[in-house]
Structure prediction request, 317 residues.
Amino acid sequence: MAMSAATRDVQIRELRHAAPKDRVLLASLIVFSMLCAGSWFALDLNLTHPVTGASRFHVPTQFVADVIPFPLRAKDAHGEVYLRWDSANFLAWLSETWGEVGWQGVLETISISILAIVLAAVIAIFLIMPASRNVACARGFLPADGQGSAIGVALRYGIFFLVRGLLIVLRAIPEFLWAFLLLILFGPVAFAGVLALALHNAGILAKLTSETVEDLERKPLEALAGLGGRMGPVAIIGVAPRAFRQFLVYFFYRWETCIRETAILGILAIHTLGLHIDHAFAYFHYDKALFFIVINSMIIISGDLLGSFARRTIRHS
Prediction:
């Protein structure tokens, strides 16, 4: 017998009321909505200020005119700038801009990102094992008689918490702040940018890889420990080879981030492509700024593609 519409609606309402309610999700949505509203009023956001009236249309128009490469600009009878294509002059402008600082900025950006991620990996390698609870504390795979004396166990726990605290500090301070602090010590040199990126990313690499080590299957490690292996040899033979692949995945992922962050450090006068972008904006050369931004975007996209290819190759190898 066909069910009437009224009966179907009643059953739908009953099922809706009988469905389990996720109170945590509902409470989270309410709290987050309140925080968003409070943040909006706290910042006193006003989308119409300060660009109002006629300037609302003049500012974008003037900006579009300024980003047109200089050799391609022309003015009509009313003084309005428009695009006039001239391939010869445009290519000459590209060659001049690239030859002046473009190639140097690209080389500096790529070099800083490579040195930074390599240095970060070297620092992280020395922090991974002490930051892994099952290795540093000699628990999880070593037998009870392999724990050592009470003083030794306390010492290992102390080192574990000290390294974990160090990783928190390295990750908590952004690259930009690290660079700001290091610039005070070393001045506006490339090493300050390399070290700033390396410190922050070393904390991330060590933290992620230490969690990978803690999640390793215990039986192979217990078998090595049962053969009389101590903590150090077991970590080197049984842990490092199994965690190295995931470490490489994190390595290439963070290298992509280093490429992006390197350009931003140029705002602090570190010699990267970002420095040339900042100078172009400072002198109102918006066409050159746009050119450098496009180059920087191409570097980032290339780094992302290369990193994605490397991670995919590692996972399927």
